[in-house]
Amino acid sequence: MSGFAFCVCGARVTALAPKQAVTESGELVWIHLTSSNEEAEAWLRGDAGLPDYIVESLIAAETRPRCDQIGEGALLNLRGRSSDAMPMSDPLASVRIWATAGRVISVTRRPLTAVKLVCDLVKAGKVHDPGDLIAEFAVAITEELDPDVADLGDQLDDCEAMLDPGMVFELRRTVTRVRSQAIGYRRFLSPQRATLEKLAALPVGWLRDDDRLHLVAAADRAARMAEELEAIRERAALTHEALTDLRAEQIDARALIISIVAMVFLPLTFLTGLLGMNVKGIPYAERPWAFDGVVAVCVVLAVGITLFFVARRWFR
Predict the structure, then answer these.
(1) pLDDT in tens, 215-225
(2) Of 26, 24, 23, whose CA–CA distance to 8 is shortest?
(3) Which residues contact 13 (CB under 8 A, 6 or more apart)?
(4) What are the strands of the beta sheet with 103-108, ordered from one edge?
(5) Could you tell me the pTM of the whole model?
(6) What average pLDDT score do residues 121-135 get?
């Protein structure tokens, strides 16, 4: 089992091992575990003395953003950026938090970049109680995701500006990737907004008014990002349709050229096939100029048919 702990008592911030922090008390005791193996589960049940349903929520393999009030405590799941490579279908790592007055226990299965940001704030003495800690988690997570969402929009803007039949395949790959990432982010940001709003409204004494304001602001930013992701998803669908239309027009243009070439050579093929029959009586078969004459007739036919298609504007 790996992790760390901090004890905040007034202006003094003490770094501890998780096992030592269990017996500490102060304005804030934060215990963070970076593993969910059997040892961590046993520690949560034994030394930490948490009920089974809370432990199961903290070590669950799959989570979605949620907030549940249990007595005077709150069970919270949030999703944020990870320093590890994440699959496109599940792009955000989770942090599971159990918070009560004076104590917070958090668990992550994958590295969460917001944890380091919050640790730095705790060490700097800017976090004083559980409400501050959770509010800083919410703010750090949403601030980190905002540039990623904006970058997806910028990539889609570039694709829309570069619409060209010669770049259909490259643009389709980019649009598909942007759309998949937008769907993956939106899957968690929409419920995360509801989670933060519910947390801000919990009737618990350890959440102060300024903490609730920060949570509401983070929820508002999550809502804005969710709306932006929905717009990106719809724009990506429209861009994909436009690329499909460009590809269809490209295929139609090539098919038209092939058809015109076939129409030019169809009478020539008929003429040469007719003269190439292995039977007696082919006109001018013994004349020395016959071949040149047939070639000239074919050239005249080809030029005449081509001029006909040009006059009918088939090449436009």
Answers:
(1) 999 999 999 99
(2) 26
(3) 6, 7, 122, 123, 125
(4) 12-16, 3-9, 28-33, 103-108, 93-100, 73-80, 66-70
(5) 0.75
(6) 90
In this prediction, residue 36 carries a pLDDT of: 66
82 DSSP assignment = B
47: number of Cβ within 10 Å: 14
The dihedrals phi and psi of 34, each to the nearest 5 degrees, come to -105, 25
For helices 130-161 and 209-275, give the axis angle rounded to 10 degrees. 20
Per the CB < 8 A criterion, the answer to whether 94 and 81 are in contact is no
**Average pLDDT of 176-187?**
88
Tokens describing residue 212:
């609730």
CA–CA separation, 189 and 21 (whole Å): 33
Report H helices in the chain.
Answer: 18-21, 38-45, 52-58, 113-123, 130-161, 168-200, 209-275, 290-311
Please state, in angstroms and rounded to a whole number, the distance separating the CA atoms of residues 159 and 147.
Answer: 18
* Mean pLDDT of the chain, nearest integer: 86
Under the banding of pLDDT at 50, 70 and 90, the label for residue 315 is low
Q: Is the separation of the CB atoms in 78 and 195 below 8 Å?
A: yes
Q: Which residue has the tokens 């907004």?
A: 193
Q: Tell me phi and psi for residue 85, to 5 degrees.
A: -70, 125
Sorted by sequence, the CB contacts under 8 Å of residue 178 that are 6+ apart come out as 152, 155, 156, 159, 232, 236
CA angle (107, 109, 112) in 5-degree steps: 80
| Percent of the chain residues topping a pLDDT of 70 | 98
Highest average pLDDT, of 96-100, 279-283, 306-310, comes from 96-100
